[in-house]
Design goal:
Strand order of the largest sheet: 3-2-1-4-6-5
Distance between the termini: 22 Å
Number of domains: 1
Number of strands: 6
CATH topology: Rossmann fold
Bound molecules: iron/sulfur cluster
Oligomer: single chain
Shape: globular
Strand content: 5-15%
Order of helices and strands: HHEHEHEHHHEEEH
């Protein structure tokens, strides 16, 4: 059933300007207990959100969409971060072998139909995995891209509430948090990858570019589709 807009208004009014740790504690423990999951790419800044989630409940369900096209460094980093933070609820979801064979047998689809590739490798597996939850948490922030400047803390995403506790954090906030808690970096960040997705669709970012400028270069595409346009209390 679609989420009524006044539910989002109320959440935004109560928690839309609260610190991320407060938003996470309230949504994980009080508002959606047992009915909320974190979705993480285990990318460049994922450790910040996951560290705060682990401090509240390390058994929180964390969904990692394993597209089959990730950098090997991301898979290694995922496993290292799970151990470092003591996360016990991480689940990998992704396309079936039959879907890969039928829809992208030669692994070229990202080069000629990235929307179709994201649809079967990311959007559909995540949609199946989220069916058992009422809400999910993302680590998106406004500074990451011009397309995210209006990102609210609470959104309606179809039949789910989507929570973006770090929406207002700056690049400096993220860096300070990483340093304070000595969080391990994704190994590709040092090579200039500031936003890390699948290997065929991720490139190094030049100085002055948006952190997400290296995603789907050459295509008129800025999001994979799991963060589709959603309703927010501001109507943005
Ligand atoms: S990011 Fe690229 S490789 Fe990954 S699912 Fe989307 S199009 Fe395919």
């Amino acid at each position: 059933m679609p989420i009524p807009t006044d539910v989002i208004f109320d959440l935004q009014r109560r928690l839309g300007y609260a610190p991320p740790s407060h938003v996470l504690a309230a949504t994980l423990r009080d508002i959606f207990p047992g009915r909320i999951a974190v979705v993480s790419s285990f990318g460049a800044e994922s450790a910040v959100l996951l560290h705060q989630v682990a401090a509240i409940d390390p058994a929180t369900p964390v969904l990692f969409v394993d597209t089959g096209r990730h950098f090997p460094e991301t898979i290694d980093y995922r496993d290292r971060l799970i151990a470092h933070l003591g996360l016990s609820g991480v689940r990998s979801v992704g396309p079936s072998a039959e879907e890969v064979a039928r829809l992208d047998a030669d692994l070229s689809r990202a080069t000629w139909d990235p929307d179709g590739c994201c649809a079967f490798r990311k959007i559909e597996p995540l949609s199946r995995a989220l069916a058992g939850f009422d809400a999910w948490i993302s680590g998106r922030k406004r500074f990451q891209a011009r397309t995210r400047l209006d990102l609210p803390v609470f959104e309606i995403d179809g039949e789910h509430v989507k929570v973006n506790p770090l929406a207002s954090w700056s690049e400096g906030d993220v860096a300070a948090y990483v340093a304070r808690h000595r969080l391990p970096p994704h190994p590709l960040v040092a090579q200039g990858y500031l936003s890390i997705g699948c290997a065929p669709c991720t490139s190094i970012v030049a100085p002055g570019e948006d952190p997400r400028a290296g995603r789907w270069r050459g295509f008129d595409k800025t999001e994979c589709g799991i963060h589709r346009s959603t309703s927010s209390p501001t109507g943005k």
